[in-house]
Design a protein that fits this description.
alpha/beta; 4-stranded antiparallel sheet; Aspartate Aminotransferase, domain 2; 2 domains; binds pyridoxal-5'-phosphate
Amino acid sequence: MAAVMPASIEPLQPPQRLLMGPGPSNPHPRVLEAMARPMVGHLDPYFLGVMDETMRMLRHLYGTENHHTIPMSGTGTSGLETIVLNLLEPGDEAIVGVIGYFGQRLHEMAQRAGAVVRTIEAPYGEVIPPERFEQELERRPAKLVALVHAETSTGAVQPVAPVAEIARRHGALIAIDCVTSLGGVPVDIDAWGIDAAGSCSQKCIGAPPGLGPVTFGPRAMEAVRGRKKPPPTWYLDLNLLFRYWGEEGTAKQRAFHHTAPVSSIYAFREALRLIMEEGLEARWARHAAAHERFAAGVTRMGLSFFTPAAHRLPMLNVIAIPDGVDDARVRRAMLDRGIEMAGGFGPLQGKTWRVGLMGTNADPERIDRFLETLDEVLRGEGWRD
Ligand SMILES: Cc1ncc(COP(=O)(O)O)c(C=O)c1O
């Protein structure tokens, strides 16, 4: 029997929120407006031009000349699975750095790809000293070293350039999850010697969720082309995808693979255009200044950070919840005042709040509004007089 339809469904009227969680952040009005531009076909010559421009701007943002740099159709996770499923084959050795929840996910993805996976871990809030990767590779080589650059569950930034240097010296490929870092702090793929990286559209890039920007360097593509068997995924198969996005030198031959999410790519292109207009250095400086302002305000209020200052992310701030304060009630009161912030993950649930200062929200006025509102809510909770 068919489900009963309600008498009427009202038009969409989402509330206006200030999104100060770990993403999505609030897209710039130009980005939302780009989504409403006329639809064209995914093989329309106009859209092929949009794809090329998107690839060019994304390469600039990633600090790379890698041809194989595209937004995957799917959220950040799709990009990370693309990396893992294309680079690893059953029986391959992999080493995964785990400093929080998102490192654990990378570990699980590598296991599902059939790899023999070893982890190198650090406690929540800490990062892994690069020498530990050297010791592990000396003990037993690996085909791939994978780790998270900006661990959103703990607010820590893991140094990756020295790990890349170690991995390459030991003949391993190096891949990073820069879902939270790209667009907010430097991510310099070529200078750091990174072979593959995956990010998302909805955090510091400031587009809606739905795309997973990835980049693959020559060593990674050699591994992809040299596979014994095609990857176990058809949708995320890089060799098939670049028949659509265009291989180097054959850019005009575009074969259907899947129907690209045209409007999402319009929005992503506009978000990248805004980043190009602002300039990378200026954007990173804006995120750093936002963090300084936020940290000063938080400290003034008597709150403290969970993450040690030495490796604190500017765009994702993990705050310790004061004793006796009810996590859920405070977040609900913030939401009632139009502001989203997030709770802690895994062992940090109920103990921390996570506050994102990403994209358009890395902004003094928005930070002040957040701090004033949190102050008011905490006073209402009787924490401060
Ligand atoms: C570090 C990190 N990796 C991966 C993901 C997954 O990205 P998505 O939710 O876009 O699939 C997230 C999402 O917050 C993240 O913070």
